[in-house]
Amino acid sequence: MTDPAGPLGPAGPVEPMDAAGAMEATAPGRHADPAGVQGPPPGCPAHAGAGAAVPGAVRLSGLEYQQTPSQLYRTLRREHGAVAPVLLDGDIPAWLVLGYAEVSYVTSHDDLFARDSRRWNQWPNIPADWPLMPFVGYQPSLLFTEGAEHQRRAGVISEALEAVDQFELAHVCRQIAEGLIDTFAGSGQAELMASYAHALPMRAVVQLCGIPQGDVDTEDLVRDLKISLDAPEDDDPVAAYLRVQERMERLVKEKRNSPGPDVTSRMLAHPAGLTDEEVVQDLITVIAAAQQPTANWICNTLRLLLTDDRFALNVSGGRLSVGHALNEVLWLDTPTQNFVGRWAVRDTQLGGRHIKAGDCLVLGFAAANTDPQIWPEGHVGAENSAHLSFSNGEHRCLYPGPLLADVIARTAIETLLERLPDVVLAVEPEELTWRPSIWMRGLTSLPVRFTPVVR
């Protein structure tokens, strides 16, 4: 579960911001100077050249980069160093931070690289239907807050999540897993991405938030979250996000009238006194950060277990190997590859680059995790958890989010391997393909076969 590392994914205090100004509702993509951030108006000579594309900037697109992003990161490092000029959709300029030390620096220095996207010097060039709007369009949610306001909002979510019993969550996840496996166990074959890895975390998280299991809206919510985070060309991510927001608004209204032992009710009852709108936005952050990244974490780990000979001898029910595989995936195939982003508060230097006030920085978690500066021998080990897959600093994935995500992912994998101990890939490993995204790392499908089991 990332803040973002998550995915509306994947900042912190800058100058103290007026609470009302910080929370002023702004439609996605509409530019407004954040309270407390002073600067020359657009068109002023002081803005000349601000945010302009750097010569040699690389487009973050293309099938080759989507399927083998590690090649892109190596090329960018060789040609540009730890901070590379890139072009987002529509050739919008940004900086991709590739180095482990540089990503750590950015996420630890909120006074220089902040989260309020209204600072962006590119807003005059951004169309309302820009594909990345769900990532960068300012919303009054935890993701875009800074300073004391961020601490207030983060505290509410952390305390609501801390009240989740991890043993009870594991029990719930096992029940969900058993039910999903029952739907395909007798057939001897399955496509695990859609029928299992994607479905399980969503059911678990919406249940934690107070949406009853089996609710008719759950599948629509799953689909719309997926579209809003990582939309195919024929879908509308902004419209999907608005549908997600409408469902959360109904949930918050229901819980105001009839609270229960769930995350939503605890957020509403917290002494910080969040408004309904604040709770809605922060619930979307929690659910989005938990669902798609965790689904990809599960599926990427299953891929590793089913294709790597190191796990072949003890994978079935092997808790140690499952834990090792989960951690290795966070290093090598982290679900949130890149995250938009941070915005420079003022002119500064990073990785030998001159970063101008208002420039957008994309956090390259995948590139940072495989930085040759931290793995000088070329071998990426998974012996520790110093990866940046849950981000870093004040805006990292909130505690105990990573622990809850681990419970969901570990339970999903262990239950599947216990129920279907002889599961193997139904295709050759090289036939597996990654979804066409530079942001999220996940398979298009994971077809498997096994001995049919009837309970």
TrEMBL record:
Endpoints of the signal sequence? none
Q: Which family does it belong to?
A: Belongs to the cytochrome P450 family.
Extract the Gene3D superfamilies matched here. Cytochrome P450 (1.10.630.10)
Q: Name the coiled-coil region(s).
A: none
Name the record gives this protein: Cytochrome P450
By its UniProt entry, which InterPro entries does this protein fall under?
Answer: Cyt_P450_B (IPR002397), Cyt_P450_sf (IPR036396)
CDD domains listed in its UniProt record: CYP_unk
Note the superkingdom of the native organism: Bacteria
Where are the stretches annotated Disordered? 25-50
